[in-house]
Amino acid sequence: MGLLDGRTAVITGAARGIGFAIAQRFVREGARVVLGDLDGDASETAVTELGGTETARAQPCDVTRPADIDALLRAATDLTGSVDVMVNNAGVTRDATMRTMTEEQFDQVVDVHLKGCWNGTRQAAAIMREQRSGAVVNVSSLSGKVGMAGQTNYSAAKAGIVGLSKAAAKEMAHHGVRVNAIQPGLIATPMTTAMPEHVWEGKMHEIPMQRAGEPGEVASVALFLASDLSSYMTGTVLEVTGGRFM
């Protein structure tokens, strides 16, 4: 038996990177997954790689729009009648120094990460409280713990996700719904590996394990928080960083 047998998981930003790795791990553990992403073509490719429509569905989703989150969650309930796991992973970066960052760049990152996470947590929790069960996993970042130069928007949003998760956990615990967060560090995805070599090397020097993490290593932690292995955990923040900034 898989750790998520018979459960339905909704994952935002799931067409590639960490979100897709989480979807892969969940499917291997018996879940059916609904992938929410703005990139329709990449989402359909992901569904095929996950085994087709018997195990995965794609739903276009802009997480800043509550109506899109509603449609995403309906796709899950139409599939199996429940939403057992919600992973709020969607994100964007618009890095710039505070001096040069535009208001639009700040708002876009905060809207996608923080408001998007609030939309997903709030709307999934409304379904889960009626079921008297469910797990929400919110993807924050190490940037939300220490703050990164050139990321006042991203660091603020990711720190906000931690506070949001803890507050939601307190509200939802007596309804049987758990809310936890993950803070990944440097993870080898197309976005991070595209950075200049000197920037990459600088980050590597900060990591005691002396390597970047893999998306699957974040997915394993998401599986832990989504499954009954973490049944007595809520409001926690787990770092997946190789020891960076511990």
TrEMBL record:
It is an enzyme of class 1 (oxidoreductase). Residues 7-203 form the Ketoreductase domain. It comes from the Bacteria. GO terms for molecular function: 3-oxoacyl-[acyl-carrier-protein] reductase (NADPH) activity. Keywords: Oxidoreductase. Pfam families: adh_short_C2. Its EC number is 1.1.1.100. Belongs to the short-chain dehydrogenases/reductases (SDR) family. This is 3-oxoacyl-ACP reductase FabG. The lineage of its organism: Bacteria, Bacillati, Actinomycetota, Actinomycetes, Pseudonocardiales.
